[in-house]
Write a structure and sequence with these properties.
mainly beta; Jelly Rolls; TIM Barrel; 5 domains; binds beta-D-galactopyranose
């Protein structure tokens, strides 16, 4: 018997320390995931989430099946609580967990009463220097609260603790080793293992006695398996059943994939035997208003954006284990992941290091079934060398997961190398030469080029080209397996970093995940077979650049050739700039007019860029020379939300010209109203930045509809309806 129930609803919250005598009326009703505080976009301060709060939930146990073992154990599984959780049931302490990024389980069985039970979780979200990532200055905010999911799990006393499917010899004669951990050995009990293919068909089956607490069973001769690839990420399911005397005692399933991922001694990375240059971005998990408490849809949205809108093949979960929902989506869409333990530059004392190792273990045990993950980051990002600590970290990672290589992100090339892959944050122009292979660049750009979506055009183009240059160099460098830029999305930070408004504008997208110009450089590297990209990196003005004019014009595209016209005047056909970007699959186009196009000498006309692929016209972009705001473009990330009280959609609002180009200097006020079964999250009226912004819609607990009205001066208002149910 295994009963698993979501425990996200029905919580009570108080932003203060309360004991179990405090009446429920002193609490507010909330649903998880939850941030201990809702933030303003404009005034986020790390001091604001650093307090002790109390979460409470009344519950009765579900009725157990008649044949259930009356000694069943009851667990609460927490996916993430920032930063220290003290869990008690009916006033009795069950346990304390330190560390905000890793899951933990509490066995509450011995404290349960018949009928109503009261669960209390006291959450201390202060930046405790004894707990990673804290102790030094940290360039990101962690926020606070029970910010990931919680589940109730009821199992037999004898149950499956973990199941780790380990595909081997994937490219020659596929085998599957299955590591099982049971609560206890019982030679009279039986383990049954079932392998299901992506369609759900059972393709292999076997059984063995449960005669050891940890055991490995192998499927030696498997039928042909579908590989997990970036284009077709086939996912299999392994199910373990534990039974005794013919009675099923426990059942546990894990999703995984058959793939071979290897950083090779020649410097390359290969997926399933095929060399692949890694091309990616770092991701912080935080969002405006809700801190780190983004529910499943927003987690999955980030993975989709990285893969589809940014054309990345890898993401680094800087600088901590991220949501299972994010990683699940990476598995489903074929996006590789470099996952690392929590920290930032600082190493604490022995107790701190023990917590870091405990986090590392929890991360690997939670995530080693994900085919998307290809590398473990076992070193605190940019920390000094520590032979003993990092020796242990590498040993632990290799013991817990012999299938993956380790990396450890450093920012100085002379550092001690204990890992399998030399992972380096490489900010200067050019490529640093550690002369160690394999070598992966794990950060560049970032603070070298903070850029806002509403910056001057030259800055935004230069930002995009800064990313393009580094990727061009890494792609041409035989020792470098790939590069992961800093970073995908702008993020909130401490006062010691960022632009003074507690935001690091290091993203190729803004904090709402809306594109800056650099995002189009990334997207333009996609194979044209998957999407034709054509983006002229200009807002096409007479006088926004220093000195005026538009020379040169940069175009990000994966077309073979482009054609440029101004008004009716044909300017020429142009090829990608292979001279300056010889290694990129799709170099930017640099259009230089021999005679500088003189905006003051001739009337100003619209720009037309046409992209040709395989000799055919494949895309066209026009940019208005009048720049009159034409429409409010409103795009919801989902048309339907679950009525679970926590599902959320992002609604993007942009002001566009008559050809659909965002007008970055339209810093207008936008009024939004919502009626119906959902909550509006955002500061209303909204202010557009860079011609764009977003608000969020959070489902209530009841089915219905959310009718949203979005309006700004002069332009037609937009109505949007989201289904909730
Ligand atoms: C790195 C660091 C990142 C971020 C970045 C900004 O040194 O690892 O977390 O702060 O700088 O460019």
């Amino acid at each position: 018997m295994r009963i698993v129930r979501s425990f996200n609803d029905g919580w009570l919250f108080s932003p203060a320390l309360q004991d179990h005598h405090t009446p429920d009326s002193a609490f507010e009703r909330i649903t998880l995931p939850h941030s201990n505080r809702r933030f303003s976009y404009y005034a986020v301060d790390s001091a604001d989430y650093q307090f002790v709060s109390t979460y409470r939930r009344h519950f009765t146990l579900p009725v157990l099946p008649q044949d259930a073992d009356q000694k069943a154990r009851v667990f609460l599984d927490f996916d993430g609580v920032m930063l220290v959780a003290t869990v008690s049931v009916n006033g009795a302490l069950c346990g304390v967990h330190q560390g905000g990024f890793t899951p933990f389980s509490m066995d509450i069985t011995d404290h349960l009463a018949a009928g109503d039970n009261l669960l209390t979780v006291v959450v201390d979200s202060t930046e405790n220097p004894c707990i990673p990532p804290y102790g030094g200055l940290v360039d990101y905010l962690t926020f606070g609260g029970i910010y990931r999911d919680v589940r109730l799990r009821i199992v037999d006393p004898c149950h499956i603790v973990s199941l780790f499917p380990r595909p081997c010899q994937v490219l020659t004669s596929p085998r599957l080793d299955c590591d099982l951990h049971l609560t206890a050995a019982d030679a009279s009990a039986e383990i049954e293992l079932l392998l299901q293919d992506p369609q759900g068909l059972v393709v292999a089956w076997q059984s063995c006695p449960a005669d050891a607490e940890t055991l490995t069973a192998s499927f030696d001769s498997l039928p042909a398996v579908a590989l997990w690839t970036l284009e077709a990420p086939a996912l299999y399911t392994l199910t373990a059943r534990l039974s005794h005397g013919g009675i099923l005692k426990d059942e546990h399933s894990v999703r995984f994939g058959f793939r071979h991922a290897e950083f090779r001694a020649d410097g390359s990375f290969a997926l399933n035997g095929h060399p692949l240059k890694l091309f990616g971005l770092n991701r912080h998990q935080t969002y405006p208003y809700i801190g780190a408490a983004a529910p499943q849809h927003l987690q999955a949205l980030d993975a989709d954006i990285l893969k589809e809108d940014l054309g990345c093949n890898i993401v680094r979960t800087s600088h901590y284990p991220q949501s299972p929902h994010f990683l699940n989506r990476c598995d489903e869409i074929g996006l590789l992941v470099f996952e690392e333990l929590a920290g930032w530059q600082h190493i604490g004392d022995e107790a701190w290091k023990a917590l870091a190792l405990q986090d590392l273990q929890a991360m690997i045990e939670r995530d080693r079934h994900h085919p998307a993950i290809i590398l473990w980051g076992v070193r605190i990002n940019e920390s000094p060398d520590d032979e003993d600590f990092y020796g242990q970290a590498n040993w632990l990672a290799r013991r817990l997961d012999p299938t993956r290589q380790t990396g450890g992100v450093r920012n100085f090339i002379q550092s001690e190398f204990l890992e399998d892959v030399f992972t380096l944050n490489d900010f200067p122009e050019g490529i640093q030469q550690p002369r160690i292979r394999p070598h992966l660049i794990t950060e560049f750009a970032g603070h070298m080029f903070p850029t806002k979506a509403w910056d001057h055009e030259e800055r935004r183009v230069a930002h995009a080209l800064h990313h393009a240059r580094k990727h061009d160099l890494q792609m041409g460098h035989p020792d470098v397996a790939g590069a992961i830029g800093w970073c995908a999305f702008d993020y909130h930070t401490h006062r010691e970093f960022g632009s003074g408004d507690r935001i690091c504008y290091h993203g190729v997208m803004d904090i709402h995940r809306l594109p800056k110009m650099a995002a189009y450089f990334y997207r333009s590297q996609k194979p044209p077979e998957s999407e034709i990209v054509l983006y002229a990196a200009t807002q096409w003005t007479m006088g926004d650049r220093s000195g005026g004019g538009n020379n040169p014009l940069t175009v990000f595209s994966n077309c073979d050739e482009i054609e440029v016209s101004i008004g009716e005047a044909f300017q020429g056909r142009f090829l990608p700039d292979r001279e300056h970007y010889p290694h990129l699959p799709h170099p930017p186009f640099t259009v230089r007019w021999a005679e500088p196009y003189n905006p003051w000498g001739t009337p100003f006309r619209d720009l037309t860029v046409r992209g040709y692929w395989g000799g055919e016209l494949a895309a066209e972009q026009k940019i208005d020379s009048v720049h009159t705001p034409h429409a409010l473009r409103v795009t919801a990330s989902a048309s339907h939300l679950k009525a679970d009280g926590s599902d959320m959609a992002r609604v993007a609002v942009q002001i566009v010209d008559r050809f659909g180009n965002v007008l970055p200097y339209q810093m207008r006020v936008v009024h939004v109203t919502l009626q119906g079964a959902a909550e509006l999250i955002g500061e209303i009226p909204l202010v557009l930045r860079g011609g764009q912004t977003a608000f969020y819609v959070k489902a209530g607990g009841a089915p219905g509809e959310a009718a949203i009205h979005i309006a700004t001066a002069e332009l037609p208002a937009v109505r949007l309806t989201l289904g909730i149910g």
